[in-house]
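Ticket #419: bound-state structure for D-glucarate.
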Amino acid sequence: MSGTAGTRIRELIVTPIAFRDPPLLNSNGVHEPLALRSVLQLVLEDGTVGLGESTGGTVRLERLEAAAKVVVGMDVFDTTALVAAIDAALRPTVPSSHERGWTSSAVEVACLDAQGKLLGRPVSDLLGGKVRDAVPFAAYLFYKWAEHPALDGRPAVGDDWGEALDPAGIVEQARLMQQRYGFRSFKLKGGVFPPDEEIAAIRALAEAFPGQPLRLDPNTAWTPETSAYVARQLDGVLEYLEDPTATIPGMARVAKESSLPLATNMCVVAWEHLRPAIEQRAIQVLLTDHHYWGGLRRTRELAVVCEVFGLGLSMHSNSHLGISLAAMTHVAAAIPNLDHSCDTHYPWNSADDIVLPGALELRDGAVEVPTGPGLGVELDHDALDRLHRLYLDSGVRGRDDTAYMRRVRPGYELRLPRW
Ligand code: GKR
Ligand code: MG
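RESOLUTION: The complex was predicted; output attached.
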């Protein structure tokens, strides 16, 4: 075991939390009133604490708890060995490298935060230095209900975004996003309404925000034929079409039939997917995500692969809070060939953040790279305790957009592709 006593890991504390989420629609159903996340505190022998954030839910929580046992006593600077040890511990029960990646990634981020705090340097410096001072993000637009309907004795829960179920509603939501955060590019989560209605929404956005980059992501709601139809309709209107259809061969079929760039965060989610995707010319843009690609350093390496093979680079997001946003911002700042604005759900969830205000702000459609040591954010312990209690009391232990939709609309069926 290398390292000095002070930089060894004493404990990894994993805290499951729940936070409020609006009724956002997607091809699987609708977001539940509460979203789950896990917060990591990696405590070193000298008392330094590194922070991490990952998706929630019982299965991934149990894996993080297994990782917590493995890392005790290891050196926080030995991230290669740490990731290998976690991977080896999970391998017998978790065959998917993508799934194992979720666990090791979260720990790697916490290690880098702790390293930065020990050295007094921001994480972007540990990744080779930032090439931009602020990272641009896209407004993430969703079809949505005005409120979570009253259910099981719980009253309806509204929000200040309102309803968006047609092109006018989407344009209104985009205007609010722009007013509040200054976004200069827009992504619409599709796969909710028949493709022609979503094409109309994109055309309405193009008219309302001329010259501002647009993208559409129906999360594999369409067959390759439908995808090619939409791609032809929106060629020249979208910067890229994201995951219109499932699988690498499916995307390759669509790519052959249109010249609109295709992007994914669904069919290329592990290193072994890169070769077939590149050989079959299935995608032109990869949405990376440090939460499952092995952490921040591996994301930086993934960017080099994209550069070598001429793939564009964007960034995927899921419902998240400030530790994740800080990590996304640091790694995006350190990637020279990031050529699209990143996705973020932050505006939908930031009211329940678990980091103290001040270090992160979405302004002019971008987040300035925090300059404090490590990730540059501080945990709000009161918020963490409150959201942990909410998790315990809620009984919610996993995300199920389809089951929630069925409780509200009993006839709802999950069909992918639907069109
Ligand atoms: O929040 O409903 C959602 C999104 O659909 C999310 O689950 C996706 O993972 O944002 C993601 C995407 O780009 O596919
Ligand atoms: Mg996507």
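RESOLUTION NOTES: The domain at 5-120+382-391 is CATH 3.30.390.10 (Enolase-like; domain 1).
TICKET STATUS: resolved
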